[in-house]
Amino acid sequence: MTKLKLQSLHKRESELAQSNRQLEILSNGIFKSGELPKFKDKIAETGHFPLRPKKLEILQINLGYMCNQVCDHCHVDAGPDRKEIMTRETMMQCLEVIKNTGAHTLDLTGGAPEMNPDFRWFVEEASKAGIEDFIVRSNLTIIRANKKYYDLPDFFKKHNVHVISSMPHYTRGKTDKQRGDGVFDKSIKALQELNAVGYGLPGSSLRLDLVYNPSGAFLPGDQSAMEKDFKKALKEDFDIQFHSLFAITNLPIARFLDFLIASENYEDYMTSLVDAYNPAAVENVMCTNTISISWDGWLYDCDFNQMLELKVDSKVKHIKDYNEDLLNDRNIIISQHCYGCTAGAGSSCQGIVT
Ligand code: SF4
Ligand code: SF4
């Protein structure tokens, strides 16, 4: 059956396009069977409230919400109809920060970051700063979306970019169900092209990692077992190799929240996140070592807080005023969506956290 093409919540003028409405829902606004414990109280049990940053390691920069795909679960609510993209002026402010940061990792994300017209210029400039690990989160299909992107594997190689790509499953059915018809075949082709220039091969310094996230209202399985399954299937079926698989929990925000509510899974999913709460995961949640920068230069504790428009609790709130010492001395803003980061083995943009 052909999957109807989704539109972003913004395009549909859904009430969930408003971050306030999402936060209201997350604060038990529509919970019918009693109240879920507050995340704040949970982490207080182990002395983690207020949640504080540790050493800054990762600068994550969102180059815009425009994307060639409209995946079901997208926490960014990205899509072709989103027009918010980072300007060169904001990129220049980011470059100043990149040159001086103590962070060892730069992580470019979106949307599809490659769709920003200044993407290549920004990568060229940022790579001169000699950051240890320079990540681009590529959705793979963008490499096959249009001729102008066909040379991306070579471009990534030239700048020694670390490619991290979503690949919800090694079967066509599950991947296309979540990400749209034809996504699997294009992703396979893109992975083969990345392999062809040296990405993902054993011993290669050109790192290629994949991201798995569940296609429904359930938590991811064991990351290392899934990595073995993905490696075996992709090698046998398509002669594709990659380095690591990151298993990520879907956080109950934006389109995944919309899906949970529409499918009447919201309460069960929230309950399963709370039941799987793992105090050991709190120590290393992503916001403790990351600053997230939005397309318009605002600063957030993480990508999820960015989508909920929860700016950092600091005097410094915008990249133009960036001050790493002041930012490191802040309390992290948390809410009920944070249960997604502490369920089971925990979850971050780099997979499990325990
Ligand atoms: S999940 Fe990624 S590829 Fe899919 S719509 Fe969102 S940003 Fe685009
Ligand atoms: S959602 Fe963000 S703020 Fe909350 S625990 Fe996860 S990384 Fe931290």
Describe this structure in words.
The model has no long low-confidence stretch (mean pLDDT 94). With 354 residues, the protein is of the alpha/beta class. It has helices at 19-29, 39-44, 88-100, 119-127, 141-145, 152-158, 172-179, 183-196, 223-238, 254-262, 266-275, 279-282, 303-307, 324-328, 339-342, and strands spanning 58-62, 105-109, 133-138, 162-166, 208-212, 245-247, 290-293, 299-300. The N and C termini lie far apart (39 Å). Bound molecules: iron/sulfur cluster (2 copies). One iron/sulfur cluster is lined by residues 67, 69-71, 74, 76, 78-79, 110-112, 139, 166.
SSE blueprint and pairings:
Layout: H1 19-29, H2 39-44, E1 58-62, H3 88-100, E2 105-109, H4 119-127, E3 133-138, H5 141-145, H6 152-158, E4 162-166, H7 172-179, H8 183-196, E5 208-212, H9 223-238, E6 245-247, H10 254-262, H11 266-275, H12 279-282, E7 290-293, E8 299-300, H13 303-307, H14 324-328, H15 339-342
Parallel strand pairs: 1-2, 1-7, 2-3, 3-4, 4-5, 5-6
Antiparallel strand pairs: 7-8
The protein binds iron/sulfur cluster (SF4) (2 copies).
The site of one iron/sulfur cluster has 13 residues, from loops.
